[in-house]
């Protein structure tokens, strides 16, 4: 069985103080910012993926310990391990990983942690199942649970299922955080790339009240004329 102690030791060897300083600023770890208190070792994602592959069979109990870590890379590697195991699991194994994921949403607490995991795990699992949990997350007071809700719908968009992206985007229209505006706008843009009429119908209904960042993200792939129309409100 892979050792958690050895995994942490490998990460220490890969640590880069200069890169850590860059990431600390990039992920807004200052007081009052969304990533307050997050600690970085300074390891780039490809190197983390390599470590995750080596420790793919780490126990869920040890993955839980990594997810409770204040060190960002440890939490991301835990999620990468979960993702790898989810892809190979049978239905029962997938459910176990999804349940584990949902119990740890408050530890999936930066935008990259959300974006690199939720639609591959939770979104994929819900493709042929009821999606009530996403609406519960969308109405959460927790920033990251709301982002999980909307980004998870990426899995549906890849299968040309648009309804939940649109409904959850409506729920999040009045959210105050730009990370939610960006996430919703991104998913709306992805919907539009697959069916522009779906996006335009949503925009025609909501563009006058959409947060500006959400709107700009959503219309990014439209023609210049259409972008101008929606922005000149």
Brief synopsis:
With 233 residues, the chain is an all-alpha fold. The protein contains 16 helices and no strands.
Task: Provide the descriptors you would attach to this structure in a database record.
globular; 233 residues; mainly alpha
Work out the helix count.
16
One letter per element, helices H and strands E, the order comes to HHHHHHHHHHHHHHHH
The coarse silhouette is: globular
Summed over residues and divided by their number, the pLDDT gives a mean of: 96
Number of strands: 0
- Indicate the radius of gyration in whole angstroms: 19 Å
Quote the distance from N terminus to C terminus.
59 Å
Quickly give the structural class. Answer: mainly alpha
Flag low-confidence runs.
none
Report the major sheet.
none
Can you offer a commentary on this structure?
It is globular, with a radius of gyration of 19 Å. By secondary structure, the protein is mainly α. Helix 13 packs across helix 14. It contains 16 helices and no strands.
Task: Walk me through the topology.
Blueprint: H1 4-14, H2 17-26, H3 45-54, H4 60-67, H5 72-88, H6 91-103, H7 111-115, H8 118-125, H9 132-138, H10 143-152, H11 154-157, H12 163-171, H13 178-194, H14 196-206, H15 212-218, H16 224-231
Helix pairs in contact: 3-5, 4-5, 5-6, 8-10, 9-10, 10-13, 12-13, 13-14, 13-15
């Amino acid at each position: 069985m892979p050792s958690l102690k050895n995994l942490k030791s490998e990460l220490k060897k890969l640590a880069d103080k200069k890169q850590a300083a860059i990431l600390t600023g990039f992920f807004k770890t200052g007081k009052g910012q969304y990533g307050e208190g997050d600690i970085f070792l300074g390891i780039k994602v490809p190197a983390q993926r390599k470590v995750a592959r080596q420790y793919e069979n780490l126990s869920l109990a040890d993955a839980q310990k990594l997810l409770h870590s204040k060190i960002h890379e440890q939490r991301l590697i835990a999620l990468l391990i979960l993702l790898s195991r989810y892809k190979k699991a049978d239905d029962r194994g997938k459910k176990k990983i999804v349940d584990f994921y949902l119990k740890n949403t408050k530890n999936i607490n930066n935008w990259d942690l959300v974006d690199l995991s939720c639609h591959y795990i939770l979104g994929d699992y819900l493709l042929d199942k009821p999606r009530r949990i996403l609406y519960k997350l969308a109405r959460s007071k927790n920033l990251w649970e709301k982002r999980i809700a909307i980004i998870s719908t990426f899995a549906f968009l890849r299968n040309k299922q648009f309804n939940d992206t649109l409904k959850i985007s409506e729920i999040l229209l009045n959210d105050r955080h730009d990370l939610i505006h960006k996430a919703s706008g991104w998913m709306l843009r992805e919907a539009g790339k697959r069916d522009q009429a779906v996006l335009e119908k949503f925009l025609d209904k909501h563009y006058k009240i959409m947060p500006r960042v959400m709107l700009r993200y959503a219309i990014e792939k439209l023609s210049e004329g259409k972008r101008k129309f929606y922005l000149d409100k």
